[in-house]
UniProtKB/TrEMBL annotation:
GO terms for biological process: beta-alanine biosynthetic process via 3-ureidopropionate. One of its GO terms (molecular function) is beta-ureidopropionase activity. Keywords: Hydrolase. Residues 72-346 form the CN hydrolase domain. Pathway: Amino-acid biosynthesis; beta-alanine biosynthesis. This is Beta-ureidopropionase. Pfam families: CN_hydrolase. It catalyses: 3-(carbamoylamino)propanoate + H2O + 2 H(+) = beta-alanine + NH4(+) + CO2; 3-(carbamoylamino)-2-methylpropanoate + H2O + 2 H(+) = (R)-3-amino-2-methylpropanoate + NH4(+) + CO2. It comes from the Eukaryota. Belongs to the carbon-nitrogen hydrolase superfamily. BUP family. Its EC number is 3.5.1.6. It comes from Papilio xuthus.
Length: 389
């Protein structure tokens, strides 16, 4: 990936200094300084040794008279796969486990309370191939599978809530596959799971060959550290999906994703969608994307008339956090594994709701009535024409 741009931040920092840089930061990120937090020397050394990026930023709130601060440390892990896609399934999975454990260990020594991976982090994103074997063999039980068992030990060791996106095989219901995120408590118990609500049917991302829309609604998981929810990948394009997690009380909404750059990619939207959701719903958002190129044994086409190929393109990382006020931190690299940490005061959510009154002015009754009419088979759009009586 030598010829790839490292990050937007690298471009900016290499070309702007002084007041110009501060003004860019103010206009783009929402503040002149990034409130970067000091990391332990041992964490920096471990990240260098394991070849991953590490950064940490603060999202403070104003001090209140009646509530103490609600400080929580949240981590995001983005990474590439760790073994060629033609290797045995368990070898590929275990190689990723070994890579990720080093990052989780650093998160643990930094006191991270909640950590989240990108979508389907324990396998290649093989759904572009439309082949069933061997990729369906990566599927496992959400509650008792090897990935959950691996993470349960780390959750207990570091008193850490872990948000893990996997390919689930529902052994109680005819072995059906689901795109599922498992939430593991700091006690090591599985709090619950959420299945992906919106399934793409776009070019290489025609995932309905493997799993369909989820059936778990919009659950919010009440953890020791705060109320969290998971808007899986393609759900970020659906504003009502974000909204329902907020209405159910989410304080942090994670968006574990697998998305690529290039002509048919989403990179120009990436920095907008989770940030817009944070603003309109007055909660923290965390956008996480995988990294690197993934080459598959057999060629596949993208239904665009172009030649067959063996990879999807660059998964561009760039994971980031955004606060309910719309202020965001710099993203991780486009090309490198990384751990991004945010120290956030959850009191900021209510402070912003009080200031901006978005929920008070939401008019859910009006939209509920309008949407009910839209679903009617005889619905007529409300269009007014010139000279219409």
């Amino acid at each position: 990936m030598e010829n790839e741009t490292v990050s937007l931040e690298a471009i900016v920092n290499n070309n702007l200094t002084g007041r110009d840089l501060q003004e860019f930061n103010r206009i783009y990120y929402g503040k002149r300084e990034h409130n970067e937090l000091k990391l332990k020397d041992s964490s920096i050394a471990a990240a260098k040794d394991a070849d991953f990026e590490i950064a940490a930023y603060g999202f403070p709130a104003k001090k209140e008279h009646t509530r103490p601060p609600r400080i929580v440390k949240v981590g995001l892990i983005q990474h590439s796969i760790a073994a060629p896609t033609d290797r045995p399934v368990n070898e590929q999975k275990n190689a990723i486990f070994a890579k990720v454990k080093k990052i989780i260990d650093v998160a643990g020594q930094e006191g991270v309370n909640i950590i989240c991976f990108h979508e389907l982090w324990n396998m290649p994103f093989a759904f572009c191939t439309r082949e069933k074997q061997p990729w369906c063999e990566f599927a496992e039980s959400a509650e008792e599978g090897p990935t959950t068992r691996f993470l349960k030990e780390l959750a207990v060791k570091y008193a850490m809530v872990i948000v893990s996106s996997i390919l689930e095989r529902d052994e109680n219901h005819s072995d059906i596959l689901w795109n599922t995120t498992v939430v593991i408590s700091d006690t090591g118990n599985v709090i619950g799971k959420h299945r992906k609500n919106h399934i793409p049917r776009v070019g290489d991302f025609n995932e309905s060959n493997y799993y369909m829309e989820g059936n778990t609604g919009h659950p919010v998981f009440a953890t020791r550290y705060g109320k969290i929810a998971v808007n899986i990948c393609f759900g970020r394009h659906h504003v009502l999906n974000w909204m329902m997690f907020g209405l159910n009380g989410a304080e942090i909404v994670f968006n574990p994703s697998c998305t690529v750059a290039g002509e048919a990619g989403s990179e120009y939207m990436w920095n907008v969608e989770a940030r817009n959701a944070a603003i309109t719903n007055c909660y923290f958002t965390a956008a996480i994307n995988r990294v690197g190129y993934e080459e598959f044994p057999n060629e596949f086409t993208s239904a665009d008339g172009k030649p067959a190929h063996k990879d999807l393109g660059l998964f561009y990382g760039s994971s980031y956090f955004c606060g309910p006020d719309g202020v965001r931190c710099p993203g991780l690299s486009r090309t490198k594994d990384g751990l991004l940490i945010a120290e956030m005061d959850l009191n900021l959510n209510r402070q912003i709701r009080d200031r901006r009154c978005y929920y008070m002015t939401q008019r859910l009754d009006m939209y509920a009535d309008s949407l009910r009419k839209v679903l009617d088979l005889d619905y007529k759009p409300q269009v007014v024409h010139e000279n219409e009586k």
